[in-house]
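Annotators were shown the component list below and the corresponding predicted structure, then asked to write short factual statements about the assembly.
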Amino acid sequence: MQATMEPVLQLRNVTKKIGRRTIVDNLSFDVPAGEVFGFLGPNGAGKTTTIRMIVGLISMTKGEVIVKGVSVRKQFAQAMTHIGAIVENPEMYKFLSGYQNLVHFARRHSGVTKQRIDEVVKLMGLQNRIHEKVKRYSLGMRQRLGVAQAILHRPSVLILDEPTNGLDPAGIRELRDYLRKLTQEEGIAVIVSSHLLSEMELMCDRVAIIQGGKLIVVRSLQETTDSVQTRIIIDVSSPPLAYQLLTESFKDMSISIVGKQLELETDKARIPEIARLLVKAELDIYGIYSSQKSLEDQFLEMTGGEMVV
Amino acid sequence: MSNFNDLLRNENMKIYRRPRTWLMIGFLVLSLLLMSGLMKWDEVRNESPDWKQQVTQQNLVLQKEIQENNKIGPDHIESMKKEIKLNEYYLEHNINPNEQSMWDYVNNSAMLIILVTILTVIVAADMIAAEFTWGTIKLLLVGPASRSKVMLSKYVATMGFALLLLIISFAVAFAAGAALQGFGGLNLPHLTIGADGIVHEGSMVVDSLQRYGYAIVSLLMYVTFAFMISAAFRSSSMAIAFSLLFMLVGNTLTAVFSSYEWVKYLLFANVDLTQYLAGSNPVRPEMTLSFSIMILIAYYVLFQFVSWLLFTKRDVAA
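Structure shown to annotators:
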């Protein structure tokens, strides 16, 4: 992670109100160069609205989006030279060939050469069918063409709204590897929103979780995976007895009985100590498992268990 | 940042790469050829060997009518007198008025500009709305160009298409006329009777271009209107339907309400500027050419402003 770098994208108190309803409420966060930033939230949380405000499709009621020091609101055209985006499904002109579509989007930017188009086509693995009409493309190919279109002009920020929609597992993996490459080699910041939490875990360096238009937390996934706090499940002969024993000895630990097992949250270093205690009390231990909290659990916990789509 | 020419090239690419556009152009060419063929057929059918006798005969009938029939109004008498004068001029200079020249084909093609208008309205209606239907608007607007610039490129491309259709009309009619009548009539004068009552020889090209010019006024208005509806409702079918409805119903509407003074402020009442030519009456007696031009400019500015406002200020949410 390169969090120390100058942020390429900054959101400052971004707010969207429609009538009296606040859809996005005072959102502020920074995304540094080279980071894959995930955007997570239940349906209607304001994810898409936020993304559309970043790219200027929806106007802001208040606040500022700054891309490489350029305000999207005040200098839209200039800010857009730094942004590449696919908003929702990558809709292309179906009556044009893939190549013509790329030419169409390339023309809007100064300095996208024919070589660059060919390079991107190869990068996305489209070279065999690039001259076919887009209407004959599969969804996965359209997705790749969409990404190709978004990176033609070497943007500093790449915004992908639900990029894994309609991709097969191999396609998702390809996209993930490709995003990694982009961030590491070209220092592009990537903002991804996705409903596939497990995907986000694999893809992102950090995730922002929003709910009801409010930013709930921005958290680093590296932190959570290396987290000292782990969830331990102990399969023990008498859970109530063990529960009593452990609550007496470790006052700060959160312990609960789940079914016939004991669940507790602690750091790894204390596991031997706990085991010794239980053995001394002549309790039989059938197993001790450590399970790391997945992003999904965290997410559900933070958003109050609402369904995520 | 985007260069306007590149945006225009993009819009043109999206118009001319669609098979539909070429179907429309083919349809226009076919209609022009059909019209030319019918004109030739009609001419051959009505051919008479001695046109001089026919014209003399016609003049006699007209003169008799003027002298004997007291019921006809002064306007009618005036026009009949003009016809007699023209006929005398034909006889004097040995010009056969029944013989069609290539210019008649071009002049008649001006009547088909209504078709050009309809075809351009269809393209204009799709210009903005189709991007919404396709979902491509999201990619189109997330680019280094202001929305105003994108919109202008779309408008200019639409007008370019209209111009192309007009040139095709003129060229096809000219070519068909030349093929069916030969280039003999190329330098034929256009005869008119001025206010002074004398026969004038004018240029046929100028006359044809004038006919085109009057037709282009309504083309410009209806296409701009369709463009506005396209931006407002983001629906092509609605833009096409409204524009065509107004084109078809407009004249009837003005005719029905022509006794009311407010009719003169309607677009339809002003769109046809030929009403100010000698020999025709405007919708309302108090209307003048400059009045109509002012009204047309006002409507044009209004349409453009509303399109711009709706295209640049609204959120793209769906």
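Statements collected:
1. The longest helix of chain B spans residues 147-181.
2. The beta strands of chain B are 189-193, 199-203.
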